[in-house]
Amino acid sequence: MQKILTYLSFSLVFSTTVEAIETKAQQAYMVDFNTGTVLLEKNADQPMVPSSMSKIMTAHLVFERLKSGDVKPGDLLFVSQKAWEMGGSKMFVNINTKVSVDDLLQGVIVQSGNDACIVLAEGLGGTETAFADEMTQKAHEMGATNSTFVNATGWPDEGHVTTAKDLAIIADRTIRDFPKEYSKYYAQLDFTYNKIKQGNRNTLLYKNIGADGMKTGHTDAGGYGIVASAKQGDRRIILVINGLPSSRERDQEATALMNWGFSYYKNYKIFGKGDVMEVADVWSGAQKTVPLVASQNMVITLPRSQRKDLQVKIIYDSPIAAPIKVGDVLGTMEVTVPEKGIIKVPLQAGKDVKMAGFFQRISNSIHYLLWGKHGS
Fold first, then answer.
1. Is 246 a catalytic site residue?
2. Catalytically annotated residue among 51, 54, 80, 112
3. Do 310 and 294 form a contact (C-beta atoms < 8 A)?
4. Which helix (H) or strand (E) covers residue 58, if one does?
5. Which residues lie closer than 8 Å to 376 by C-beta, 6 or more apart?
6. Which of 52, 54, 89, 229 is catalytic?
7. 365 is known as an active-site residue
8. Residue ranges of the domains in the chain?
9. Domain covering 27-264 assigned CATH 1.10.10.10 in the classification
10. Backbone phi and psi for residue 63, each to the nearest 5 degrees, phi listed first
11. How many other C-beta atoms are found inside a 10 Å radius of the C-beta of residue 69?
12. Which of 169, 146, 171 is nearest to 159 (CA)?
């Protein structure tokens, strides 16, 4: 017999109406890092000029080389004439010298140095074009399939495009794959090279909103943009905006959107992995019941102001026949989330239940047939 238990209140109350927020950005994408819930989306898949925001992909490839051991932070890379002559934001490396990978990473991430990007690309990829091809390939492997990188800097170049959503994917992977490297470089407020001190161009780092990365960008074609990440408590939000008319409006828009994302939304832990969700009757078992436990954590991001009940259903066949082993899937939990549909989570056995002895099985069967429950 299938048993369905429905919980309407579950100690949380929500509504179906989500208040929208307007943004002046031409493209925008905001996502909760822990749950993957999209908080804001505007032209998120529209091809756009990424400018220096491309450099998070450049840095990602360097982090990969460091993690694999192919490159060490102290390794020295040669500065070519091409790198030295590169315009735009600069680290101010000297031609025909060698610079450490560690310094070059700081030059890329903190100072947005185009020259540093080319030194890394040539030193690790042979040519900037070959390195850019690697950037594109890696982005596609991540799922950022609408991105094509033609250079390592984000300098305006025909065919060099990405999307707001793709940049968020790359940012997410960087934080997950390289947490130590991320925290070391992206939150750094300034860097001095060649006796020239430059502050981080990410102005969110200087505000009390939990920002710890990542990268700003600007071109005439793409406008002003930023890939930003901020952490407050156990929540992290990734934000990408682009197409703003000035650095001031970029700063104001990013700050306002981050504050909205943290204040309007909240992460609710519905249950944790291993939590007992129900105790089910067992047929012909040495024990009369078995705990049904959640197979995974469930944390849902929802607006604080929602008022409609969250619905949770537990579905399983009762009684459950022994023998039972820990981890056996015995049922399903269906969580209906406003405006998101149904999320199904397997329910597993929380303990082993052996088959009962012959006479105990006979006794239990009689009681169950007569009264629908086991005898004492």
1. no
2. 112
3. no
4. helix 55-68
5. none
6. 52
7. no
8. 27-264, 272-371
9. no
10. -60, -40
11. 7
12. 146
Match domain 272-371 to its CATH number in 3.40.50.2300, 2.60.410.10, 3.30.2040.10, 3.30.930.10.
2.60.410.10
Give 318-331 pLDDT, tens digit per residue: 899 999 999 999 99
The catalytically annotated residue of 42, 51, 55, 89 is 55
The backbone region for 274, taken as left when phi is positive above 0, alpha when psi lies in -120 to 50, beta otherwise, is left
Q: Which two tokens stand for residue 358?
A: 């012959």
Q: Tokens in use for 125?
A: 């990829």
Is 55 one of the annotated active-site residues of the chain?
yes
Q: Cα 198–93–148 angle (5° rounding)?
A: 85
Measured between alpha carbons, how far is residue 57 from residues 67, 80, 140 in Å? 15, 22, 11
Q: Give the containing element (helix H, strand E) for 218.
A: strand 211-219
pLDDT digits (tens, 9 = 90+) for 102-134: 999 999 999 999 999 999 999 999 999 999 999
Q: What does the alpha-carbon distance between residue 69 and residue 315 come to, in Å, rounded to a whole number?
A: 49
Q: Which two tokens stand for residue 227?
A: 């890939």
Q: Which two tokens stand for residue 280?
A: 């089910």
Query: Please, what sign has the CA dihedral across residues 192, 198, 201, 202?
Result: positive
Q: How far apart are CA 247 and CA 365, in angstroms?
A: 75
What tens digit of pLDDT does each residue of 64-102 get?
A: 999 999 999 999 999 999 999 999 999 999 999 999 999
Over 70: is that where the pLDDT of 225 sits? Answer: yes
Q: Say which residues have a Cβ less than 8 Å from residue 301's Cβ, sequence separation at least 6.
A: 32, 34, 35, 37, 39, 265, 266, 267, 268
**8 Å CB contact between 184 and 178:** no
Backbone angles phi, psi at 344, to 5 degrees: -105, 130
C-beta separation of 25 from 253 below 8 A: yes
> Of 94-108, 255-269, 356-370, where does the model show the most confidence?
94-108
Radius of gyration for the alpha carbons in the chain, expressed in angstroms and rounded: 27
The encoded tokens of residue 205 equal 């780092």
Structure tokens at 57: 């992909």
Peptide bond into 319 cis (omega under 30): yes
Q: Report the pLDDT value the prediction gives residue 373, as an integer from 0 to 100.
A: 58
Element (H, E) at 231: strand 223-232
Residue 9: what pLDDT? 39
